[in-house]
């Protein structure tokens, strides 16, 4: 998509339009895209739900539930509510009639967005295909669904087989919203547009890499989903593995979608770990079992620590650490790259040793980069001190700072699937998660009250 281009004839059909994701992320992002003219003003959004609502009462409901600032007087013209039971195949015939009567359906960029639980995927895929709302291979029609992409490799394969019956891979967009975040996209720019990093990006320059996603909150109102999922499936299989694949991938032949995806898959295929308690352990926060919709004897992990290796020429000998969990000391998501110790020291330096360089890509809640270098302390002696170069990405934005969902929705309409995991990325990450699950199958998670307790157990060897 060219800068300034307006995408026209857009039709979004959101299944699960009375749910949390629609109110929290999709409606605000769609409003932004229309108001900043990335999407034309006549974009139609068909909000599908099972509640007895009209378009008018749906908008009233949305006004109460959406917290972002939206000009509802104009945005209401883009919205249509359609009531149906998603699980009833025959209802899709009437949905088609509704869309034909209310929207310019032919020649539109059509997106079917599944903001529902994954169990509804088979019915929706069958319904929209059987009643010709979506044709296999039609490049103007796309289906979008949210993580988790299955519960393990076997169920992910099942979903994928089913989707392949109705859609071509190029029509399928699997959302991992982390990939829409500005700083995740920045990983490739930092790596491949800076000679200083490109030349030392591997075991010749890097000592270790830590990929961290800490949350301070517990499960809040998502107990029933989380208790079935846990941190391994909820965070590691998707967000953290995706971060790793971008950090560790070989330089792609080009920045075309499949060249990037091929290199990401290469990383995921080469993940290895020696399964032992020093390299992997899980925790559960004290009080988790009393959360709403969590089983009282739940063994679901709310914390994971994992040390892995990427078994390729570039990374041999460099450990990668994953740390993720809920109810920890802070909300923070970042990638910490620790470079090797400096091999030179100078007798005139007063320090016995100087600290190694460190690069931190900050993803959440701040967006930015810090790079630690060594400089001379002001004064008459040669004292070396670590100095932080701090870049704030958000501070550089002029006007609206795009949310991840804005970027991803725009890419879907433009037909750019670079930021969406391809099936083989999902396949290899599930294969690895299944191995971890199988190793942990008889382990109880360690109960924790604070991150400090867990941090003491982590052996950064
Ligand atoms: N919420 C987030 O921030 C978030 C973030 C990342 C990924 N996701 C993923 O996004 C998906 C949706 O999450 P969510 O939090 O929005 O879930 P949710 O709040 O439970 O919403 C689910 C929606 O599906 C509708 N629905 C369920 N069965 C239906 C049926 N038979 N007919 C018609 N509508 C039906 C619900 O309608 P009712 O309102 O009538 O129940 C509701 O609108 C899940 O896969 C989740 O894992 C969510």
What does this structure look like?
The chain is of the alpha/beta class and 461 residues long. The protein has two domains: 10-146, 3-Layer(aba) Sandwich (Rossmann fold); 179-455, 2-Layer Sandwich (Dihydrodipicolinate Reductase, domain 2), CATH 3.30.360. Helix content is 34%, strand content 22%. The protein has 13 helices and 16 strands. The strands form two sheets. Strands 7, 8, 9, 10, 11, 12, 13, 14, 15 and 16 form a ten-stranded mixed sheet that branches. Strands 3-2-1-4-5-6 form a six-stranded parallel sheet, sandwiched between helices. Helix 1 (20-35) links the parallel strand 1 (10-15) and strand 2 (44-49). The chain is globular and about 80 Å long. NADP nicotinamide-adenine-dinucleotide phosphate is lined by residues 16-21, 24, 49-51, 85-87, 115-118, 146-147, 225.
Task: Tag the structure with descriptive keywords.
single chain; Rossmann fold; Dihydrodipicolinate Reductase, domain 2; 13 helices; 16 strands; 34% helix; globular; binds NADP nicotinamide-adenine-dinucleotide phosphate
Secondary structure layout:
Elements: E1 10-15, H1 20-35, E2 44-49, H2 55-65, H3 72-75, E3 79-83, H4 91-102, E4 109-114, H5 121-130, E5 141-146, H6 153-166, E6 172-175, H7 182-192, H8 195-198, E7 206-214, H9 223-248, H10 257-269, E8 271-272, E9 280-285, E10 303-310, E11 319-325, E12 332-339, E13 358-364, E14 368-376, E15 384-392, H11 404-414, H12 423-440, E16 446-448, H13 451-455
The protein binds NADP nicotinamide-adenine-dinucleotide phosphate.
The site of NADP nicotinamide-adenine-dinucleotide phosphate (NAP) has 20 residues, from helix 1.
């Amino acid at each position: 998509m060219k800068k300034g281009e307006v995408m026209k004839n857009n039709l979004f059909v959101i299944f699960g339009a009375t749910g949390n994701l629609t109110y929290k992320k999709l409606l605000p992002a769609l409003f932004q895209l229309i108001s900043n003219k990335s999407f034309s003003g006549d974009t139609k959004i068909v909000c599908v739900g099972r509640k007895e609502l009209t378009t008018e009462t749906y908008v009233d409901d949305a006004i109460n539930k959406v917290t972002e600032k939206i000009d509802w007087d104009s945005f209401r013209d883009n919205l249509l509510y359609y009531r149906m039971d998603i699980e009833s195949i025959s209802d899709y015939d009437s949905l088609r009639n509704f869309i034909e009567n209310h929207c310019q359906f032919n020649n539109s960029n059509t997106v079917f967005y599944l903001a529902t639980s994954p169990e509804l995927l088979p019915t929706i895929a069958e319904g929209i295909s059987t009643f010709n709302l979506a044709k296999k291979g039609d490049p103007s029609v796309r289906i979008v669904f949210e993580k988790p992409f299955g519960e393990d490799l076997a169920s992910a394969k099942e979903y994928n087989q089913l989707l392949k019956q109705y859609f071509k891979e190029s029509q399928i967009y699997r959302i991992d919203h982390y990939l829409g975040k500005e700083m995740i996209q920045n990983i490739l720019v930092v790596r491949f547009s800076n000679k200083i990093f490109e030349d030392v990006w591997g075991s010749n320059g890097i000592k270790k890499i830590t990929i961290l996603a800490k949350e301070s909150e517990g499960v809040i109102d998502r107990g029933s989903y989380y208790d079935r999922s846990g941190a391994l499936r909820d965070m590691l299989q998707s967000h953290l593995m995706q971060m790793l694949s971008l950090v560790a991938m070989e330089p792609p032949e080009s920045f075309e979608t499949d060249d990037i995806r091929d290199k990401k898959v290469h990383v995921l295929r080469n993940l290895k770990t020696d399964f032992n308690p020093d390299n992997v352990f899980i925790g559960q926060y004290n009080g988790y079992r009393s959360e709403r919709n969590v089983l009282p004897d739940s063994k679901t992990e709310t914390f994971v620590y994992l040390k892995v290796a990427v078994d390729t020429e570039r990374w041999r000998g460099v450990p990668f650490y994953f740390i993720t969990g809920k109810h920890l000391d802070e909300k923070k998501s970042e990638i910490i790259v620790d470079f090797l110790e400096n091999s030179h020291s100078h007798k005139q330096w007063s320090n016995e040793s100087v600290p190694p360089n460190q690069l931190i890509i900050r993803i959440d809640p701040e967006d930015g980069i810090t790079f630690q270098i060594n400089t001379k302390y002001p004064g008459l002696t040669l004292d070396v001190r670590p100095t932080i170069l701090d870049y704030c990405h958000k501070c550089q934005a002029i006007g609206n700072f795009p949310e991840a969902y804005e970027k991803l929705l725009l890419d879907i309409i433009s037909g750019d699937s670079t930021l969406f995991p391809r099936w083989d990325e999902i396949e290899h990450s599930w294969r690895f998660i299944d191995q971890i699950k199988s190793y942990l199958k008889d382990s109880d998670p360690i109960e924790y009250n604070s991150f400090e307790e867990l941090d003491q157990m982590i052996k950064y060897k």
